[in-house]
Amino acid sequence: MNILFLCTNQATRNASGGIARVTVNLSELFSSKGNRCRMAYFNAITGQEDGCFEQSVSLTPQNELEVLMEQGEWADVFIIQVQVNKEYLHVIPTIDAVRDKHGTKMIYCLHNMPFPEVAGNNLRFLNYLLFHKENSLKERIIDSVWCLYAMTLPNMATRKIAARKQYVMNHMDMTVLLSDRFEPELVKYVNLDKDKLTGIGNCFTFSDTLPVNGLSQKEKTILLVANMTERAKRVSTALRIWKLLNGKVQDWQFVLVGDGEDLEYYKRLAKRYKLKNISFQGRQNPLDYYKKGKILMLTSAYEGFGMVILEGQQMGCVPVVFDSYESVYDLIDDGRNGILVKNNDYRLFAEKMYSLMTDSNRWMSMAKECLKGNPDFTTDAIWDKWSQLFNRLGVE
């Protein structure tokens, strides 16, 4: 089977974005099963290592029809990793043209919760938009108006977003969510045939799991791995939580790995809070940090899956996470292989963290459970789901 991944950003082996890493993982998995994979992308990532595609092609709005028509003649299926919002609606007529001429099947992967645009809007985020986000005045006003709208009229805001998703999904042969748990929220607002909807999570990133004896070598480190952007990752909340813990745990370190548009804002915030034992590492391969860290903190306002949770668990880094999105329950069994905290309760989050940090036996028990892994996210399990999907679409 010939598969083209259609991506917003170039997917490479050392890419920092979750969608890029997932795309590479899937390409490697599909190729290992005898399939051929190519990639087409809109945004090049400079200084990145090559991926595992037999061909990669760059797209622009001007050349996309010609290039994708050529790729459609080769491909049995397009797996669309582009998050089709206003900026990329132009790709839909192109997809229709490719399907009409070549019969190529179109699979749209929604790499987030169904309506992230409406999630995470509150007074604290509004304050950030107005006074801290480094944008033009016009952009700040537009973003702030949407934040107020989504806060005060969430159903109307959701329906506005849903209308666009309805348009996109009507042009697809199948829509893939990251969890079946997202289906009720989506179909509440989007009229979609359930035969054209399925849930497939992401598979393990790392080929190996940390050996059990490696747990004794870990350092007293709390780790946060994320793109440094406030809207989704809400790293400012993690800093507030660390502020509550700073006076209680002198021998622990808080290490933040990742880059993004709000990194400098977070550094200023850490200084304003007078935080100790904290370091910003920037963009790094997180594997060595997972191996050393004992606890993984994730304070996102929303996620689609939370790849860092799965990655941390593989390395015995126990996750403590807000229950801000449905699919987190696929990854964490609260109290066994991680801790879930009621969304937005940052004081309770700090209490749960402190309890885990000061109870080494409990931490060790949970870390060992993390290393056992989840059979639902092995490469074989994920391939089985994709294989069933391809069979349903009549492509082999």
Summary tags:
alpha/beta; 7-stranded parallel beta sheet; 13 strands; Rossmann fold; 6-stranded parallel beta sheet
> CATH H level of the largest domain: which superfamily?
Glycogen Phosphorylase B
* Radius of gyration from the alpha-carbon trace, in angstroms: 21 Å
Helix content: 40-55%
- Mean pLDDT, to the nearest integer, reads 93
User: Helix segment count?
Assistant: 16
CATH architecture call of the largest domain: 3-Layer(aba) Sandwich
CATH-derived topology of the largest domain: Rossmann fold
Total number of domains: 2
Q: Order of helices and strands, N to C?
A: EHEEHEHEHHHEHEEHHEHEHEHEHEHHH
Which CATH first-tier class of the largest domain would you pick? Alpha Beta
Biggest beta sheet summary:
7 strands, parallel
Can you offer a commentary on this structure?
The strands form 2 sheets. A 7-stranded parallel β-sheet has the order 3-2-1-4-5-6-7, sandwiched between helices. The protein has a 6-stranded parallel β-sheet with strand order 10-9-8-11-12-13, with helices on both faces. It contains 16 helices and 13 strands. The protein has 396 residues and is of the alpha/beta class. The chain has 2 domains: 2-116 and 158-203 and 378-393, Rossmann fold (3-Layer(aba) Sandwich); 212-376, Glycogen Phosphorylase B (Rossmann fold, 3-Layer(aba) Sandwich). Helix 4 runs antiparallel to helix 5 (137-152) and helix 5 crosses helix 6 (154-170).
Record the SSE blueprint:
Blueprint: E1 2-9, H1 18-32, E2 36-43, E3 55-58, H2 64-74, E4 77-80, H3 91-102, E5 105-109, H4 123-131, H5 137-152, H6 154-170, E6 174-177, H7 183-189, E7 197-199, E8 221-225, H8 230-233, H9 235-246, E9 253-257, H10 263-272, E10 278-282, H11 287-292, E11 295-298, H12 307-314, E12 318-322, H13 328-331, E13 339-341, H14 346-357, H15 360-372, H16 379-393
Parallel strand pairs: 1-2, 1-4, 2-3, 4-5, 5-6, 6-7, 8-9, 8-11, 9-10, 11-12, 12-13
Helix pairs in contact: 2-3, 4-5, 5-6, 9-14
